[in-house]
Design goal:
The chain has 274 residues and is mainly α. The protein has one domain (69-268): MetI-like (MetI-like fold), CATH 1.10.3720. It is built from 14 helices and no strands. It has helices at residues 3-33, 37-40, 55-63, 66-97, 103-112, 122-131, 139-142, 149-159, 164-172, 177-188, 190-205, 209-214, 223-233, 238-268. Helix 1 (3-33) packs antiparallel against helix 14, helix 3 (55-63) crosses helix 14 (238-268) and helix 4 packs antiparallel against helix 13. The radius of gyration is 23 Å and the shape is globular.
Length: 274
């Protein structure tokens, strides 16, 4: 056996081991969610339930309105994702194709916001939206996140891989900036748009601190607040809590698995451009 083939086998085995190590807690939680409370408390503990039951999922849905919270999170995540794709595409187009005074400095200032921890701006943002009367509404979860430096950076890096000769040829043919953006640039930017969409959707879906501060109305709470409420109500019944956690994980895991190839492709598309 050649050294190259042996190294490939070793890397494959290590990759499988690391993958199983990462996914095991999720699989274990899934197994426990189908296990009755009586069986779960038995010693020694079982990894696989002897009988499957959906009682934990029914109890989770009856204890906390998780379906309503899932719908709220889905609306918020979709709106934030669409908003960030639009604003990032427009801003990135300006940074990639326009030449104006102070462009590099402005772009550096945009990137510098990524170095500021979100927790340091929570109080000022909370006071601002409170003065506008936005608390307890879905818009308070959407509007502050309609743009991001990460999205602008990702789209700009991808746009820099597009030859400028294409834009010059389009201008000669009478194609304006918006027409070039929407008719030519965006269709070829699907990998970057898909990766940005997945990244933003999952981040928005998993938000906890901001919804906790701004939403007190039970009808507008999101899934992360819902699972905390479930844990508070069913603190000793871990099977019900895990069943609720599995329910709120399904959309984000599905979105990630659906677009993981596009996510990697989009993230690395502009890696060699400056």
């Amino acid at each position: 056996m050649s050294k190259r083939k042996r190294n490939k086998i070793i890397l494959t085995i290590l990759s499988i081991f690391v993958g199983l190590l990462i996914i095991f807690p999720l699989l274990y939680a899934l197994s426990l969610s189908f296990m009755s409370q009586t069986e779960m408390t038995k010693y020694p503990h079982k990894i696989i339930p002897s009988t499957l039951t959906l009682d934990n999922f029914k109890a989770a849905l009856n204890t906390v309105p998780l379906l309503k919270f899932i719908a709220n999170s889905f609306i918020v995540s979709i709106c934030v994702t669409v908003g960030q794709v639009i604003t990032a595409s427009l801003a990135a187009y300006a940074f990639a194709f326009y030449d104006f005074k102070g462009k590099n400095l402005l772009f550096l200032m945009v990137l510098s916001t990524m170095m500021i921890p979100a927790e340091t701006t929570v109080i000022s943002n909370f006071l601002t939206v409170s003065s506008w009367g936005w608390n307890d509404s879905l818009q308070v979860l959407i509007v502050p996140f309609l743009t991001s430096a990460m999205g602008i950076f990702l789209m700009r890096q991808f746009y820099l891989t597009i030859p400028k000769e294409i834009r010059e040829a389009a201008k000669i043919d009478g194609c304006g900036n918006l027409k070039f953006l929407f008719k030519i640039l965006i269709p070829v930017s699907k990998p970057a748009i898909a990766s940005l969409s997945i990244y933003v959707f999952i981040n928005t879906w998993n938000q906890y601190l901001w919804p906790l501060l701004t939403i007190n109305n039970g009808n507008n709470r999101t899934v992360q607040i819902g699972i905390s409420m479930l844990q508070y109500s069913e603190g000793s019944n871990y099977s019900v809590v895990l069943a609720g956690a599995i329910l709120i994980l399904i959309p984000s895991v599905f979105i990630f698995l659906l677009g993981q190839k596009q996510l990697v492709k989009g993230m690395t598309a502009g890696a060699v451009k400056g």
